[in-house]
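Archive maintenance. Older records in this collection stored only the sequence; we are now back-filling the structure field for every entry so that each record is complete. The fields below show one back-filled record exactly as it appears after the update. Entries are processed alphabetically, and CD86 protein is next in the queue.

ARCHIVE ENTRY
Title: CD86 protein
Organism field: Grus americana
Length field: 209
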Amino acid sequence: KSFLNHTAYLSCYFPNSQKTDIKDLRVFWQKGAVEVVHEVYYGQEIHDNLSPKYINRTKMDMDKWTLQLLNAGIVDEGQYTCIIQHRDKGSPKVIHTSECLLHIIANYSQPEIAWLHTGELKPKEYLNLSCSSSGGYPEPKHMTWLVSHENKTDRLMGPMDVSQDAVTMLYNVTGRLNITVPTNTLTNISCLLHLGEQLGSLLSVPLGI
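Back-filled structure field:
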């Protein structure tokens, strides 16, 4: 996993138990079946075969057998393969391959609750609220509303609209809640945006009614 616009670290997981000299190895990384990301040819980095979008964006740490992918973007998500060949009696022989799946993460803004109507609230009327968060990746799972009064908290689900920016590929999300106005009791309403196991959840500032 890598944060958007940060450096992603992709490991070859090559133990090099034989302590083979890098000058006897050809190391190359590719994405999918066709794109060459990085190539070290018997100790020398060469750029002739690289896919254009990776030129000047990669560095290989030969001590850790790890590729650094600079300024990782959402389009860089996907499966990468590290292939190592040994120069054996002149003809190269593959001695190691490994795969690495890259996921990009971008932080969502803290969810914010907004009123969707004007005028004075009267008991037993309907209260319309929205909760919005923006600029995140990947797509969120769902949104839960927490309605707390006295010593009790209800968890409610409402509809959630998700849109993706065509240029940045980042997601914006808005959830809606429609409940009756509580009577004679202080009520706090929060919304909780669920982002999946890796990223956890984001909680809004509570709205007091």
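Update note: DSSP finds no helices and 19 strands in the chain. The mean pLDDT is 89.
Entry marked complete.
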